[in-house]
């Protein structure tokens, strides 16, 4: 009897020390069955011609021993629309009794995945059949997110979480200063982030269930008509070869002004994917930090203001020769004439913090690297990965520095996203105030 009691005590002690989390992982394919227009490049002239590899929605559910939760959802697409993000969140929260802060959605920003209408609708001229196909795909994507989350909860078992860090050097700053202003090129002196954060999830037998890794770089290695996840899709496949049975998940960093180098072909995308996967493997074979509970989460929404623009500017654009400016102007003038408020954009920010061991800061949209630098500077004691492309991808989010320099990210990109123009000069201040709020709510100290 005493031996039995000792055995039970040891099992309970082992579970309390090593099984402080429960975790589950699941995936749903979002590869379309028929050709579809691909998002990201206005220069494309036809729908997709085939599939290089499948693209996915993947969900990782984590719960600590006090029932604090986080579900991380990754998607191999350009970015979620506001409609999809809101609907998926509403359904997940209702089905699982969650708070909004407990759901973190991120998109890889591959430019070789289907159109997520109505995001970037300005760059397309879809006929009725293509428009309906895009709507059906959006509905399937929403369903797949909800289903993947449900499956991840059904898969939950006692688990251990650990963190490591690698490095991959193929990203470069793309904001090149020229006599004609800042252009998309190569800025060898510009800020970059080559770190590769890695979160490993194992069950209590030591079997790897999931590997979540990140990188800060645009997913734009190739311009192809084949559906694929670009370098991040290839990297996930390579990591899953290294760890058979595990689910590899990619989370994008603040790579709005970072490009892969070199780029231009699928072969280079595969090469960068292998480089990134090798960095993940090296991190997992190195020294790892065991993550501890609790899981703390926070979510807020702030208003980002646009600079006021005279409607006459858009009337002039309507009669100009640039088709993309015409389409943007039509959207703005229709909204203006209906009395809709076009002065602000509601911007979500969230944080996920595993005790004092590891933090994911989730920023919405195409976020430039200055925000990752600023967040780490504001919270220097945090082991933090700053993710961009979270929640929804509606436009670029420039820093004050980049806004003053001009160029594609703060200015002309707004045409293709259908927004009324550059943000106001306080955009960085507003975002960073929201960052400070969610970080402090999770217990972080400046």
| Structural class designation | alpha/beta
Cα separation of the termini:
53 Å
- Overall, the morphology is globular
Q: How many strands appear in the DSSP assignment?
A: 20
Helix content: 25-40%
Largest sheet: 9 strands, mixed
Give me the Rg, rounded: 22 Å
Count up the helices: 11
Low confidence ranges: 1-17
Mean pLDDT: 95
Strand-residue proportion? 25-35%
Task: Give keywords.
single chain; 446 residues; alpha/beta; 9-stranded mixed beta sheet; 4-stranded mixed beta sheet; 29% strand; globular; disordered N terminus
Overview of the molecule:
The protein is an alpha/beta fold and 446 residues long. 35% of the residues lie in helices and 29% in strands. Strands 1, 3, 4, 5, 6, 9, 10, 12 and 14 form a 9-stranded mixed sheet that branches. It has a 4-stranded mixed sheet with strand order 15-16-17-19, with helices on one face. The protein is globular and about 65 Å long. The termini are far apart. The model is unreliable at 1-17 (pLDDT under 50).
Q: Brief description of this entry?
A:
With 446 residues, this protein is an alpha/beta fold.
Q: What is the topological layout?
A:
Elements: H1 2-18, E1 21-29, E2 50-51, E3 56-64, E4 69-75, H2 82-96, E5 103-107, H3 128-154, E6 157-167, E7 171-178, E8 181-187, E9 195-203, E10 208-215, E11 226-227, H4 230-242, E12 247-252, E13 258-260, H5 266-284, E14 289-290, E15 295-305, H6 311-318, H7 323-337, E16 344-354, E17 358-364, E18 366-367, H8 370-378, E19 384-390, E20 396-397, H9 400-405, H10 408-417, H11 427-441
Parallel strand pairs: 2-11, 4-5, 10-12, 17-19, 18-20
Antiparallel strand pairs: 1-3, 1-6, 3-4, 6-9, 6-14, 7-8, 7-13, 9-10, 15-16, 16-17
């Amino acid at each position: 009897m005493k031996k039995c009691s000792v055995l039970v005590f040891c099992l309970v002690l082992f579970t309390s020390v090593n099984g402080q989390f429960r975790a589950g992982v699941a995936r749903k394919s979002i590869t379309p069955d028929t050709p579809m227009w691909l998002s990201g490049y206005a220069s494309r002239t036809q729908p997709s011609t085939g599939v290089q590899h499948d693209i996915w929605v993947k969900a990782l559910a984590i719960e600590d021993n006090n029932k604090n939760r986080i579900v991380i959802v990754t998607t191999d697409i350009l970015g979620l629309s506001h409609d999809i993000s809101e609907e998926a969140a509403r359904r997940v929260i209702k089905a699982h009794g969650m708070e909004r802060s407990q759901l973190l959605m991120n998109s890889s920003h591959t430019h070789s995945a289907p159109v997520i209408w109505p995001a970037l609708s300005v760059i397309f001229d879809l006929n009725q059949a293509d428009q309906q196909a895009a709507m059906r795909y959006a509905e399937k994507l929403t369903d797949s997110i909800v289903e993947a989350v449900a499956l991840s909860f059904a898969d939950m078992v006692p688990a251990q979480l650990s963190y490591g860090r690698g490095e991959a050097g193929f990203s470069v700053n793309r904001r090149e200063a020229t006599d004609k202003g800042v252009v998309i090129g190569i800025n060898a002196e510009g800020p970059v982030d080559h770190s590769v954060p890695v979160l490993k999830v194992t069950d209590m037998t030591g079997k790897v269930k999931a590997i979540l890794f990140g990188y800060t770089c645009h997913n734009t290695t190739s311009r192809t008509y084949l559906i694929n996840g670009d370098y991040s899709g290839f990297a996930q496949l390579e990591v899953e070869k290294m760890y058979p049975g595990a689910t590899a998940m990619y989370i994008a960093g603040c790579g709005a002004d970072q490009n892969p180098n070199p780029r231009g072909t699928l072969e280079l995308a595969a090469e960068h994917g292998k480089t990134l996967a090798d960095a993940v493997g090296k991190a997992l074979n190195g020294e790892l930090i065991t993550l501890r509970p609790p899981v703390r989460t926070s979510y807020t929404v702030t208003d980002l203001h646009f600079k006021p623009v005279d409607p006459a500017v858009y009337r002039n654009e309507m009669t100009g020769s640039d088709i993309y400016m015409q389409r943007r102007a039509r959207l703005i003038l229709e909204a203006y004439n209906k009395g809709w408020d076009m002065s602000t954009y509601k911007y979500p920010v969230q944080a996920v913090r595993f005790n004092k061991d590891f933090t994911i800061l989730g920023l919405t949209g195409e976020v430039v690297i200055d925000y990752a630098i600023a967040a780490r500077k504001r919270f220097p004691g945090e082991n933090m990965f700053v993710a961009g492309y979270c929640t929804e991808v509606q436009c670029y989010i420039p820093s004050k520095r980049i806004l003053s320099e001009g160029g594609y990210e703060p200015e002309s990109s707004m045409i293709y996203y259908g927004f009324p123009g550059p943000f106001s000069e306080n955009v960085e201040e507003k975002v960073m105030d929201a960052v400070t709020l969610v970080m402090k709510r999770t217990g972080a100290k400046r």
